[in-house]
C-alpha cells in the first residue's frame, strides 16, 4: 500500500515545497524546511482539530473557576512536583538522561495508581512486555495488574486508548512512536510533533491523563521540536548523576501547579523512594566546624532546603583563578569586588574556589551572603560558629537585600537544630518569641561590613 505524499513546510514563513531544499524558496532561510503531512482534502477529517473542547462565548468574570480534581500517585515527592497529583485530561512530559530512572518511577506510580482503583495503561516502544515484567519483579511489584502494550504505531495506540478507556496512560517514549501519515523515521521532528499533537488531542477529548517520556540531547534539553513543551500541560526534568543514588525531579512548566518545584528521590534496590528531608543530602557531617564552610537556606519552588556552601582561598599566581561549582561564576567575581570595596577584604592575588555541596545548582541571589562569609572564613583560616547559617542578596553598593519568604527559611533552619543566623534586616521576624524560632539567635544586618563585624564578634 502506497504511503501518503508529504510536503515540506518552512518553519520561518510557512511556505510549502514539494521536496526538501537547503534554502526555502519563499523566504530564502537556510535549513528551515521540515517534513509534514499535507492538508486533507476531506473537510470532515481534519488533523488539526482543536485540542481543547469548544465552548460558547463567555465573560471571564462569569466563568466558574473550579480547582481541577487530583489523582494522587502514591508517591508524595512526585505529587509535590505535579502540584498534588495527576489531572484528568492533562498531558505530562518527563525527560532525563538514559538510565536515570524515568521508566522505573512511572512503572512504580502506575502500580500504585492501579492498586488504588485507577485504570492504567503502560505503552512501551523501547522494551518488550517480558522486559517490563522483569523490571517489575526487580522492583517488588509482584502480581501487578497494570496493563502493558508493546506498540509504536500511533494509530494502534489511539485505538487502544479508545477501546480500553484508561484513567492514566504512559507512552514510553514519544520518540519511538510513528504515524503512518508521515514517511520519516520515528524520532524525527515531524513524527514527534505529529504524534504528540494526536495524543494531546486524545487526552483532551477523552479525559485520560497521558504521560509522555521524552529523550534528551547531549546538552540535556528535550529532543525534538520546542513546540512539544508548549503543547503539553506539565514538563518535568529528571536530574542527577547516574553514579549517585539521589535523583531530582524538577517542574519546568506546570499549568496546574507551581513551577521550579522539585521532588527528591533515592535510588534503591526496590526502585525510587522519596526523600522527606532532602537537606541532609546537601549538608556535610563535620565533627567540628571547619574554615570555609557556611550553610544557607535556598528555595526550590515552595520547599526551603539547607545547602552547605564551601570556599577555598589559596595563594595564586600572577593570574588567580575564580572557579565556582553550582553557582554563577560571574556573580562570584562581582561578590569578590564588593568584598574588597566595602569590607576591606582583598583576594586579588588569591585563587578562590566555591562549591555547593551535593551537586545542587543554586540560581537565586540569596546565596550571596553565605558565599562572602565562607570566603572570609577560608581566607582567615577560622571556622564559623557551630549551628551557623546565613542568607541574603548583596548589592554592588554593599547593601544586604532581603530574600523572598525569609520566615519560612528561618523556620526550616530552626527545625533542623541551627542556632545562629545572619539575615537581612527586612527578613527579621516580627514575633521572635514564636515557638517556630525557639533556640534561634538572629542577627539582622543592612550592609556587608555589618555582617563581617557580627561574624568577627561571634566565637570562632
TrEMBL record:
GO molecular function: ATP binding; ATP-dependent DNA damage sensor activity; damaged DNA binding; hydrolase activity; zinc ion binding
Stretch list, region Lon-protease-like: 351-460
GO cellular component, one term: cytosol
Residues spanning the signal sequence: none
UniProt keyword terms in alphabetical order: ATP-binding, DNA damage, DNA repair, DNA-binding, Hydrolase, Metal-binding, Nucleotide-binding, Stress response, Zinc, Zinc-finger
Residue stretches making up the RecA family profile domain: 67-216
Keyword Zinc in annotation: yes
Source taxon at top rank: Bacteria
InterPro entries: AAA+_ATPase, DNA_repair_RadA, P-loop_NTPase, RecA_ATP-bd, Ribosomal_Su5_D2-typ_SF, Ribsml_uS5_D2-typ_fold_subgr, Rubredoxin_2
NCBIfam families reported in the protein's UniProt record: sms
HAMAP family in the cross-refs: RadA_bact (MF_01498)
Protein name: DNA repair protein RadA
Record gene name: radA
